[in-house]
Write a structure and sequence with these properties.
alpha+beta; 3 helices; 13% helix
């Protein structure tokens, strides 16, 4: 059975990202990040991300990459965006090689998040979403988190 592919595009259409629909449909793969850098790079309350194996993503066009060195975690994050319209497209953390965080604002379908990161930085007026896993900061490498990362193709 063929996998259905969905595609999201930046505002001007110069960059598109295609990925399997079944991964997009699974809330376990979707998260919000409220850290200051993600808020600034998204230009909004939080970044809204789909976490999946990089091998499952096809990128058309050439995004500009910003190497964000001043992060709370101390890890340099690669933040990709359209150089023409400025739309954020994806991020990569070198600690989790093989994993990509695709920014979901470029897709028509908006899946409910299954997790939230850096909730300590979420504004007090922004309410918790029922049923999602809340993390005050980046999750520690518990066995459960390692299994989740392994399911995304990341080897620790």
């Amino acid at each position: 059975m063929a996998t259905n592919i969905v595609t999201g595009k930046c505002l001007c259409g110069e960059i598109s990202i295609s990925l399997p629909e079944n991964i997009l449909s699974n809330s376990e793969n979707v998260g919000l990040c409220f850290c200051k850098n993600c808020r600034q790079s998204a230009g909004s309350l939080a970044s809204y991300n789909l976490y999946l194996p990089e091998k499952d993503v096809t990128i058309q066009g050439q995004p500009k990459i910003y190497f964000d060195k001043d992060t709370t975690s101390g890890t340099t994050i690669q933040r990709a965006f359209c150089a023409n319209c400025g739309s954020p497209m994806y991020g990569k953390n070198p600690k989790f090689a093989g994993l990509i965080a695709v920014r979901l604002g470029s897709f028509d379908r908006l899946t409910k998040p299954g997790m939230a990161l850096y909730c300590k930085d979420r504004p007090e007026w922004n309410k918790v979403i029922d049923g999602i896993q809340e993390n005050e900061i980046m999750p520690t490498l518990t066995e459960e988190f390692k299994v989740w990362l392994a399911s995304k193709g990341v080897s620790i």
